[in-house]
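Any chance you'd type out a single protein's sequence alongside its tokenized fold?
>
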Amino acid sequence: MPRCRPARRPAAFGHPGEPTRTTKKKTNRVVLATGALTLLAGGIAFAYWTAGGSGTGEAGTGTTAPLTANQTSTVSDMGPGIGPQPLSGTFTNPNEGPVYVATVTASIAAVVDVNGDPVAGCSTEDYTLTGEVMTVNAEVDTGDTWGGATIAFANDAARNQDACKGATVELAYAVS
């Protein structure tokens, strides 16, 4: 008896996992269509008009508000034979960010009594500032510190300085 062979499948089906003629045709069509669209899109991407023109604008530069040097050191009981006392303090910076400060300079503005009036017989000459130009050379913000100067009573043995008893020395500070 002759052996039976399995029936042949039509060539359109091929072997399992292998592309068929129909599938190959569809794949070729998809590749061609994709290529055509790519070329068309590429042509669109490079097709444009050019034009010249001009415009204007502006940019503002900010300003800074003055800083304040606040004395935080306490100076008291100045008199004959008492050594110099340190001057130091902090900054108040009303600006949005740090501001560069080169120096703080101390000066004696006035010598006054308890009522704020000038003291007869006692003047700024009766006090001595040392190191009154204090170097900072930094960007500072509120709360940053400064210091380095001292103040003392200037003993003058050649004259009576009793008028300076109880006087208040008003100091001024310049920030630059």
